[in-house]
Amino acid sequence: MLFSENNLRKTASASLFVITLVLFFNANTPAYAIATVPGAPTGLTAVAVSPTQVNLFWTAPTSDGGSAITGYKIEYKSGSFFSTLVENTGAVTTYSHTGLTTGTAYTYKISAINSLGASTASGDVSVTPTSTSTAVAPGAPTSLTATAASPTKIDLSWTAPANNGGYPIIGYKIQYKIGSNSYADLVADTASTATSFSHNGITAGQLYIYRVYTITSFATSTQFSPEALITPRAASASSAPGAPTGLAATAVSSSKIELSWTAPANNGGYPVTGYKIEYKKGTGTYQSLVSNTANATTAYSHSGLTTGTAYTYKISAINSIGTSAASTEVSATPTTASAAVAPGAPTGIIATPVSATQVNLSWTAPSNGGSAITGYKIEYKSGTGAYSVLVANTASSSTAYSSTGLTTGTAYTYKISAINSVGTGVASAEASATPTTTSQPSAATAPGSTSLTATPMSATQVNLSWTAPSNGGSAITGYKIEVKKGTGSFETLVANTASASTIYSHTGLTVGTTYYYRVSAINAIGTGPAGDAYATPKETTTPTLTATATSPTQISLSWTAPSQTYQQRINGYKVEEKIGSNTFKTIIENTGSTTTYPVNGLITGKPHTYVVSAIFGLGASPRSNEASATPTSTSAPPAGYSAAPPPQTDAKVASNDPKAALKAQQAEIQKKIDQAKEALKKKPGKEDSAKAIAAREEAKKANEKARQDALAKKQKALADKQASLKAAQNKTADQVVQEKKKTSKQLHDEAVKLRELEKQAKQK
User: Fold this and answer.
1) pLDDT of 213-229, one tens digit each?
2) pLDDT at 162
C-alpha cells in the first residue's frame, strides 16, 4: 500500500504524539510492559487425508506478545508464490483444506494474530495428496502412569500420540481391571483432549491395571497405551507425611518476608498435596497464615507486614491421610534496610543449531537479587528484525531451552532475562545462530548401548531394567523398547518413553511364552544401539498346606511358603474355607508373615477343607493344595504338636468387645465341660452301676445339646453382630455397664455349672 504525503504527515504527527506520551509516562510512572505481535506458531503438520483434502495442525506460540491471540493466518502455494488461504481462522489450531488437485504438492505456513498484528510465519511444510491418500486410526497414547493420590483415588496421566492419523484428537477411552479380572470401560470417551483423569471410589489393597486408547473424529486407535499398574495402600498402612525441612525466612522488603523449604523425604505413602503455614508476631501466639496451600510448591511470600516486627514461622505437610508435625521454627524481621532486587543478567549464553529447524540455548544463572529465581524471559529476533518474546516466563530454574520450528537458513538472535518475586532483571548479552540443513551438535553422537535385564515377575509380567549408557554428548531424552514372542519379528512396544527412567513393566503376557526385548537410548542426535535380553513369565509355585484337628472345635493350619516367587516379596497369606460340599469362602484376607493359622469355633463332626494363597505386591500365587480335617469329640493335638496361637488382631477384638470376650470364655468353659463328661464315660467297668450308666447317658445328651447350642450360638452371633453394629453408635455408658454386668453373670453361671460337673466326676 502506498502512502500519500498527507498520510505521511498524519502518521508522523501521530508517532510524535505517541512518543511524547511514552516519554511522559516513563518520566512520571513505573514502567509497564508494551504489547507486541505474538511469537510464531510451532509444530505445523500437514496430512493428506484424501486425494483432494489436506488437514493442518499446529501449536499456539508460547508468547502471545501481551495481547490475546485472536486467530491465525494461513498461506499456501502450489507453485512458486504464496497466497492467503485464510485471513483469520479464529482461535483454533486445526484447518481442513479441501478441493485440492490430486498429485499436486502444496506448501503451507501459518502466522498468529493478536490486536497488534500478525507474527512472523511458522516454518514451511509440504504435502502431496495422492489417489491412495486416506486418514488412518490414530496411534496409541504413551507414557501412561498411575499414581495413588489417596486410599480411594488413583490419578492417571499420559502423553498424546505423535500420530493422530490425520484428524484432531477429540477424546480418550480409558479401561481398567482389578487383578486378573477382565478389562471394563472406566470412561468410554472423555470427550476432552486432556491427558489426565482421576479414578475415584477405588478399594485400597487391590491391584488396579489401566490402559488408554486415542479417539479422533475418524476412528479409535487399534492399539492401547502401555499398561499402568498400581495397588493403593490402605489408610491404616499409610500415614501423614514427615515434617518439611530446611525452612528459611528472608526479609526482602520493609513489609515482606519470603519463605522457602524442602518437601519431606517421607510422604507417608501418598503425595504431598499442600502445606499448612503458621506464624506469630513477636512473642504472640501462633495463628494460621494458610490452612492449606493446595499445591506442592515449596515457597510462599508473606506481605503487608509491620516494619521492625519479628515474625516466626513453622510449616506442616499435608497428604490425603493427614497433616504432618510442624517443621522447626525460623524467624525474620523486615526493616527499612530489607530489600531484594530483580536478578542480575544471565551470563555465558550459547545458541547452538542442532537441526535444520532447531536452536538449543544454554546460559549461567545470575545472582538472584535476594529472592529465588523462578523463571526466565527469552526474547528472539530473526535477521535484522525487532525482538519478540519467545517465552514470557519459563516458570523453571532450568538454564536450557530449545527454540524449535525455525526457518532453515535464517539467522536468529536471542537474549535472556532472569525473573524473581521482585521482577525481571536486565537482559543478557545477545547470542546468534543460523540453523542449516547440516546443523547438528558439533561433538554429539547418538547414545551408547544399554545393558538390559529381563526378569519374570509373575505369570503375566516381565520387568525390564537397564543401565543408562553414555549420552554421546547430548542428554538422553527417552528409550525405545521393542519386543518379540518366540521366533516372531520385533515390534515396537514403546517408541519413546520420554523419560530418563531405566525400568519398565511389560504386562498382559502369556504364561510360558518366551519374550525377547531390545532397549535403545534416544537423544537429540538419534537412537543408539540396543541392548537385548529375554525372559519367560511363569506361574509362581504354590504354598503346601496341612490341616490338623487339634480340638473338638479347632483345626490348626500350617504351610510352607512358595519355593519360587520370581523376586516378588510375600506380603502375607489369604486363607479360604469350605464346609462339606459348600463353596470356598475367605476367612482371613491376610495372615501377615506367619505360616500357621488356627481356625476356632468349628462344628464338631463336620469336615472342613482349606486352601492358602501367597499375596504379592502384584497379585497372588495360585491356590495351595486342598487340605481337609474333621474335628471330633476326641480331637487333640498330636504328640509334639505345637498349635499356633490365635492372630493378635483376634485377641485385640476379644479384649475390646464384651460379646467376643463372653464367647471366648464360654468356648473355654465348654471345652472343660466336655473333658469332664469324657472323664465320666471313661471310668472302669467295675465301677459301673445303674447310676453311672445314667450319668453317661446324661453326658451324651449334654454333649449333643452342647453341639446344638454351639450351632445356635454361631447363628445367633451373626445376627447379634449385625444388630450390635447398628446399636454401637447409640449405646450409652450405662448400657455398656449393664452389658458388662450381664456378661459377668453369664460367666459366673457357666463356672457354677462347671464346678458341679467336676464335683460329679470326682464322686463317680
Assistant:
1) 999 988 899 989 988 88
2) 77
3-state SS, residue 656: helix
Q: Do 557 and 498 have their domain in common? A: no
- Residue 675 C-alpha cell reads as 473333658
CA distance 144 to 504: 11
DSSP per position, 256-309 = EEEEEEE--S--TTS---EEEEEEEETTS--EEEES---S---EEEEESPPTT-
CB 132 within 8 A of CB 161: no
Do residues 211 and 172 make contact, with C-beta atoms less than 8 angstroms apart?
no
DSSP 8-state secondary structure symbol assigned to residue 411? -
Per-residue pLDDT, 380: 93
473: left (phi over 0), alpha (psi -120 to 50) or beta: left
Measured distance CA(180)–CA(77) in Å, rounded: 56
pLDDT single digits (tens) 120-167: 998 888 999 999 988 888 889 988 888 888 889 999 999 888 788 888
Q: Which of 238, 412, 222 is nearest to 322 (CA)?
A: 238
Q: Which DSSP helix (H) or strand (E) runs through 359? A: strand 358-364
Does residue 758 register a pLDDT over 80?
no
How big is the chain, counted in residues? Answer: 764
Statement: the pTM of the whole predicted model exceeds 0.70: no
pLDDT at 17: 45
Tell me which residue range forms the domain holding 356. 347-433
- What is the reported pLDDT for 737? 53
Q: How many structural domains comprise the chain?
A: 8
* pLDDT tens digits, one per residue of 246-287: 898 988 888 999 898 988 888 887 888 999 999 999 999 999
> What was the pLDDT predicted at 7?
47
Cα gap 504→566, rounded to integer Å: 16
Between CA 648 and CA 214 the distance in angstroms is 50
The three grid cell numbers given for residue 251, joined into one nine-digit string: 526479609
Handedness of CA 138, 144, 149, 153 (dihedral sign): positive
What is the rounded average pLDDT of the residues 62-82?
Answer: 90
Answer whether 464's CB lies under 8 Å from 456's CB. no
pLDDT in tens, 644-663: 454 444 333 333 444 454 55
- The verdict on residue 300 lying in a domain is yes
| 601 Cα distance to chain centroid | 43
Residue 441 lies in a domain: no
- Could you read off the pLDDT of 697-712 as tens digits, one per residue? 665 666 666 666 666 6
Q: Is 517 domain-assigned?
A: yes
Give every CB contact of residue 57 below 8 A, 6+ residues apart in sequence: 43, 44, 45, 47, 93, 94, 164, 168
d(C-alpha 535, C-alpha 566), whole Å: 11
Which neighbouring-strand residues pair with 610? Answer: 577, 627
**Do both 77 and 121 map to the same domain?**
yes
